[in-house]
């Protein structure tokens, strides 16, 4: 219908990007071409999720004890621990002059305790804990490693946005995949822990670039309500990745083998350089209309559509307008409306990530089999993501995001008085925590789509990347969040609840994006925001 309207429109009125979504008008909002491309782009999430989640298996907790020394190798580990290590795994009795027959009487002999220098680990395989002796005084090094990784994620989101908006989505995506794959392979051969965590930091920096470049490219290939479907469906492989890596981790108990197994598939994705297009909307914003025409012709052929005869004229106004705009981070604060969006989105991303990963960390302490829990944690995400599509199509973006965040916060808040009243109502607390996690999972799916639609094409990746900086800060704070339980058991949940509610309220101060065309320039986005504010004021006045 939209295509027919363009074909029959009068040539006396000069249309611009503000009047029509030229790309969607020409090739359709969604067709076979968009289906194939968005599906392929969503697959890039698989290795990224593996690299993010793999420390769960790299540093899997296993029973351990101070290593048995010469002359005691045939002593049962359980007896060895009971007799020689009265204060845990870091100290052992001085065994100078001691025989096996003396072990049961060590405590009575008042032998001096000395620090362990080597350890033995239960079970098969090899973890970074056992290989690099990350125990006792070195135990915090594993947390520092993850802090480095998450710090890389925070910085990488912003840098990737700048590079993607300047050099294009496709180039940034494929260059990042190449670097991610190389880094992943090199990590599997790291001889020292220092090298391991430095490479992990670089990997976090690169992996977030893969995720966001692929996401932005995915939603820029479709139009209308299909942006919602493409944006949310982009996250489906994340849930599947949790379940797949659980199986891989169960089969490959050596961390180096597992690291290599999750890295090598990245080389397959490099083949997609010859399949995936550059974003036609980004090319339009850059004024590169000849390249847009080539992409539109291929897409139209796949979608069995005919391009409008005057499509070249439709692209010219955007070329003229977009040539005058350059890209830099300060554009996020260039205008009043852009500043408002950016600051609110910083709070929202921080809140969603703190709540989401705060709950994931807490639910990860429920006990049970590590591999089964990993499968279940992935399975619970699937219905939440699927529900998000339905919610967005029926209720827009702003209200669903705001309400799911507030519902998550309220559910967490309800656990506080219950926990204070009785410790025998754990099933109620667990149920509320599951409700909160389900809700925030929907928020986590909705938020990137809403954010990408709020920013114009010219700075879309910078905007998403900058928001990810605040998310990265939240990620780095999550481990310390649960340390605050030492102050009071209800403090962590109270903080999570507050973030969910405050973040949800902040969402309501942003404009609805709906199913209208994506804005390409800051000027268009500014005009849309002002128009939205004026419409809201008129609606309120009419109702009063």
UniProtKB/TrEMBL annotation:
Annotated ranges, domain Major facilitator superfamily (MFS) profile: 96-515
Top-level lineage group: Eukaryota
Keyword Cytoplasm applies: no
Localization, UniProt: Membrane
Keyword Transmembrane appears in the UniProt entry: yes
Chain segments carrying region Disordered: 524-544
Cellular compartments per GO CC: membrane
Keywords: Membrane, Transmembrane, Transmembrane helix
CDD domains with a match to the protein in the record: MFS_SLC22 (cd17317)
Topology with respect to the bilayer: Multi-pass membrane protein
Transmembrane segments annotated in the record for this chain: 35-54, 147-164, 173-192, 198-222, 234-252, 258-276, 343-364, 370-393, 400-421, 427-450, 462-482, 494-511
InterPro entries noted in UniProt: MFS_dom, MFS_sugar_transport-like, MFS_trans_sf
Sample GO molecular function, one term: transmembrane transporter activity
Name of the molecule in the record: Major facilitator superfamily (MFS) profile domain-containing protein
């Amino acid at each position: 219908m939209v295509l027919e309207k363009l074909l029959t429109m009068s040539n006396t009125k000069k249309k611009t990007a503000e009047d029509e979504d030229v790309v969607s008008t020409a090739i359709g909002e969604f067709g076979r071409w968009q289906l194939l491309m968005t599906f392929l782009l969503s697959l890039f999430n698989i290795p990224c999720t593996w690299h993010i989640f793999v420390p769960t298996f790299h540093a899997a907790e296993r029973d351990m004890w101070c290593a048995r020394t010469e002359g005691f190798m045939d002593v049962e580990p359980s007896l060895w621990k009971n007799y020689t290590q009265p204060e845990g795994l870091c100290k052992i009795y001085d065994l100078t002059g001691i025989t096996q027959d003396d072990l049961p009487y060590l405590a009575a002999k008042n032998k001096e305790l000395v620090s362990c220098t080597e350890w033995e680990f239960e079970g098969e395989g090899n973890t970074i804990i056992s290989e690099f002796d990350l125990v006792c005084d070195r135990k915090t090094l594993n947390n520092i490693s993850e802090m480095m990784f998450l710090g890389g994620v925070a910085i990488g989101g912003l840098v990737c946005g700048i590079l993607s908006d300047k050099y294009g989505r496709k180039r940034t995506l494929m260059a990042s995949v190449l670097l991610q794959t190389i880094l992943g392979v090199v990590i599997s051969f790291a001889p020292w822990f220092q090298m391991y965590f430095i490479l992990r930091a670089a990997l976090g920096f690169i992996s977030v670039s893969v995720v966001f470049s692929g996401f932005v490219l995915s939603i820029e290939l479709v139009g209308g309500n299909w942006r919602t479907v493409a944006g949310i469906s982009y996250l489906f492989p994340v849930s599947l990745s949790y379940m797949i890596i659980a199986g891989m981790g169960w089969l490959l108990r050596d961390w180096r083998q597992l690291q290599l197994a999750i890295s090598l598939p990245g080389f397959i994705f490099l083949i997609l350089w010859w399949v995936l297009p550059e974003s036609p909307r980004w090319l339009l914003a850059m004024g590169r209309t000849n390249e847009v025409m080539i992409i539109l012709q291929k897409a139209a052929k796949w979608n069995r559509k005919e391009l409008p005869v005057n499509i070249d004229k439709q692209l010219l106004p955007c070329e003229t307008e977009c040539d005058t705009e350059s890209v830099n981070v300060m554009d996020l604060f260039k205008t009043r409306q852009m500043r408002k969006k950016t600051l609110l989105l910083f709070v929202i991303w921080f809140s969603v990530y703190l709540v989401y990963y705060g709950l994931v960390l807490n639910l990860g302490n429920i006990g049970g089999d590590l591999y089964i829990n990993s499968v279940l944690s992935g399975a619970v995400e699937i219905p939440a993501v699927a529900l998000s599509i339905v919610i967005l199509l029926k209720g827009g973006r702003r209200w669903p995001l705001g309400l799911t965040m507030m519902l998550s916060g309220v559910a967490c808040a309800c656990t506080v008085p219950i926990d204070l009243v009785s410790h025998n109502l754990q099933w109620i607390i667990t149920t509320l925590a599951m409700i909160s996690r389900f809700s925030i999972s929907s928020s986590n799916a909705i938020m990137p789509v809403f954010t990408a639609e709020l920013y114009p094409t010219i700075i879309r990746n910078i905007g998403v990347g900058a928001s990810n900086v605040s998310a990265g800060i939240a990620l780095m704070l999550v481990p310390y969040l649960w340390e605050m339980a030492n102050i009071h058991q209800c403090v962590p949940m109270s903080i999570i609840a507050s973030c969910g509610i405050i973040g949800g309220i902040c969402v309501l101060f942003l404009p609805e994006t709906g199913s209208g065309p994506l804005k390409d320039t800051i000027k268009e986005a500014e005009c849309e925001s002002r128009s939205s504010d004026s419409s809201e004021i008129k609606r309120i006045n009419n109702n009063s």
